[in-house]
Amino acid sequence: xxxxxxxxxxxxxxxxSLRLSCAHSGNSFAFYVIEWYRQAPGKLREMxxxxxxxxxxxxxxxxxxxxxxxxxxxxxxxxxQMNNLKPEDxxxxxxxxxxxxxxxxxxxWGQGTQVTVSS
Length: 119
Known about the structure:
By secondary structure, this protein is an all-beta fold. The protein has no helices and eleven strands. The strands form two sheets. Strands 2, 4, 5, 6, 9, 10 and 11 form a seven-stranded mixed beta sheet that branches.
């Protein structure tokens, strides 16, 4: 059973930075794709960034050039460095994970961490 625990959220002023962490408790972390999603009030959940086992990354257009996702396989943790934050980045941020070896993909989810960008 995999558990994901997010941390690092908080209140920040526009233009500020935060670093979110997603700690993965299961084995074989190196085989997991880790994704960050966010959901703002009244909006659908959207994918923000992901990183695959080879450390290849993808980003939503809205965060390209501002957010960086990275993984540390020695710590079974993925980070989301968020710079130049904007009020529209305010949302609950969730990490998700799935094992690329599994034919029937199962997504694990964390409990979420709140990010609020406001002056």
